[in-house]
From TrEMBL:
InterPro entries: DUF3140. This is DUF3140 domain-containing protein. Residues 21-45 are annotated as: Disordered. It holds the Pfam family DUF3140.
Length: 108
């Protein structure tokens, strides 16, 4: 699961943190009662996971890694046609640590 997580999450912790600070990252996804989307909260957790050593991972951490891998795979299969650089589809994936354009959060 750790290797699959590493493949699914192609943004560094620093790139993901910068992305999560941007307004675009807050505009996508399903929101819970706190006003933060599930994906945005997941992104913050992903940064924590990326900074942990393998031996520090808990069962909950591994379960979240599995959730991230599943989300990224499902959404990559649903790629819309046309330019996705400034699309909600891309922004949602980036909240989960995957930039389908591979540039770590640059837009435009």
């Amino acid at each position: 699961m750790i290797a699959e997580f590493g493949e699914a999450v192609n943004m560094t912790p620093a790139q993901l943190e910068r992305w999560l600070e941007r307004e675009e990252s807050r505009q996508v996804g399903q929101k819970d009662g706190s006003g933060e989307s599930t994906g945005h909260a997941s992104g913050r957790y992903i940064v924590e996971l990326q900074r942990k050593k393998k031996g520090e991972l808990t069962d909950d951490d591994v379960a979240h890694m599995r959730k991230v891998v599943g989300y990224v795979r499902r959404h990559l299969a649903q790629r819309p046609s046309g330019d996705v650089r400034e699309s909600p589809w891309r922004y949602s994936l980036m909240n989960w640590g995957h930039d389908p354009c591979g540039d770590g959060g640059s837009t435009g």
